[in-house]
Amino acid sequence: MITDALISASDQVMALGPSWLNADSLIESFGAYALIGIVLVVFIETGLLFPFLPGDSLLFTAGMLVAQEQLDFPLWLLCVLLFVAAFAGDQVAYFIGHKAGPRIFNKPDSRFFKQSYIDQTNAFFDKYGGRAIILARFAPFVRTYAPVAAGVGKMPYRHFVSYNVIGALLWGVGITVLGYFLGQITFVHDNIEAILVLIVFVSVLPIIIEVSRGWLAKRKAAPAGDATQTAAQSPTDPKEIR
């Protein structure tokens, strides 16, 4: 019975077109398999490198529909399963990056991938690891690829698991509960994506500033390095000028 329900929900996910972007239509399309469908979408978005799904609005809308008794399962069950799906999804994505990443990035002269990308990713997660994994949950597309980048950059697994637990709890459970209590407010429901993006932007603004400073410093250092190299190579002996 459970296997049949999973297959049915999965088939409905794959059969959907533009309604991927509409949480209400997505949940309605699942029908009696709404619970399984919602959980499956969260796992696919976070674990199978498929970012084109309405993760934030799906969680919020699911919580709202439970509060309105349009979904016939309890909030606690939805939250538990969403936490498991969000946690497991990032675990899968991390191992994809950890296992497949080195084989992809081991060609320094590759057109699209370079060894330096691994070093940069590793340095980024060494500096912002916890915040990056947690905050990435709230940013579309970023939440799909952040755990992969953590795996590629070989973030210590113990650290990743800790951040993954917090991120899955705050995102998977937090937004669902928020939808349960606030979803009936029209303004909040209609602008949930914009509100979440604004919150994330404010949260990651210090990281953006720091990265921008590093990029500008590197840009300024490059001409200075070229000038120094040119000066070192230029002849200084008057006899050589002749």
Question: What would you say this structure looks like, in words?
Answer:
It is a single chain. The chain is mainly α. Helices cover 79% and strands 0% of the residues. It contains 11 helices and no strands. The protein has helices at residues 2-15, 23-30, 34-47, 55-67, 75-105, 115-136, 142-152, 157-182, 186-190, 192-233, 238-241. Helix 2 crosses helix 4 (55-67) and helix 5 (75-105) runs antiparallel to helix 8. The longest helix is centred in the C-terminal third of the chain and has 42 residues, at 192-233. It is globular, with a radius of gyration of 23 Å. Residues 5-18 have low confidence and may be disordered.
Biggest β-sheet strands, sense, barrel: none
Strand content: under 5%
N-to-C order of helices and strands: HHHHHHHHHHH
Number of helices: 11
Q: What percent of residues adopt helix (DSSP H or I)? A: over 70%
Structure keywords:
single chain; 242 residues; mainly alpha; globular
